[in-house]
Each structure stands twice: as structure tokens, then as C-alpha cells.
Give the backbone structure.
Amino acid sequence: MKKFLMAILCLLILFGCSKEKQIVPDFSSGFELDTFDPNMAYYEGIGKGEHCFRQIRVSELFRTVDEKGYGVFVLGYVNCPWCQATMAHLNEVGLELGVEIYYIDAKSEEYPLSKEDFANLKKYLEPILMEDEEGVKSLYTPHVFSIIDGQFVNSQISITGNDNYDLENPSDEDVKWLKDIYREILKPFVH
């Protein structure tokens, strides 16, 4: 009887620990990106206040994938109404969790995307792009995504998944919904 119970216990331990494995970046690898301070002053709700963003050139995103790096990224631009409506919520979650978010300005005047950069951006992000009405995968903003070991892990495009989200006056429930998605994306990067 003891052998039987021990066998059951061993099976429970083996299979009980087989919950969905969370992928966590290897922070000891020292993977670093070339960053600079972004001007977030024009985003509603951030202004000149504290923020968790570091701006990168798009080439640093490509390097992250190619060199099997890691990070949380957001593709956006100031004149995007969806970016204006959501970027402050992403900032709040980033500050709350202490996670740095790499910002890629899709319409940067200082570091404009060349046609080649834009084509490469679509190619690199292809696995996580959303299809438009004609079935063509397109870039939409804001696009928040995480990369671990050069692989896309989580992604949220704008407010997709919530048809009732009011950009100008979101309900507390809708803001909570979006922040929970952002927390899930950022969670592996909390250390």
C-alpha cells in the first residue's frame, strides 16, 4: 500500500507541476538596447510627468529579434487618437510594475522610418500583425508587444477585443480591462 501511495504522490508531483510554463527572460544575459529619452509630453495623461518609456530606433527592435533578446515594446505616434487614449494607461502599468517599455515612434521626425525600415518592420512584426478587411496584414497603433529570446510572446493592438471601448470617455471597467492586458504583457519582465 505504501508503494502505491508513493507512486500516486510521485505522479501528482510530476503532473501537478506541469501547469502552463511561463516564459521569463534571462535578465542575466545583460541584453541592452541603445536608447534615449523620448518626448512623451504630448501624450494625454503623461505630459511632463514621470514615465517608463525609453525610445529606440527601429533597428534596435530588429536586433532584439535577431540576437534573441527581450523587452516590452510599443509602436505608436503622438497624432494617433488610439495612442492618445491608451498610452497613459500603459505608462501607469509600466510604472506600477517597474518595467521599462521601449517606444518606437512610427512617425518620428528625428529618426524617420525609411521605406526599407517600414518594409522590414512589417516583415519582423508579421507574426503578430492584424489583418484588415481585405485579409492584408497591416500595422496598427498603438501596438504593445513583448519579445523573449527573440520570439514574440504577447501582443495587444490598440483596443482590439473590446468593441465598446469609448476612446474619449472610457468606463472604469474598460480601463481595467486594458490595464489587465498590459499587466499580462509586462508580468514576465518584473524582476
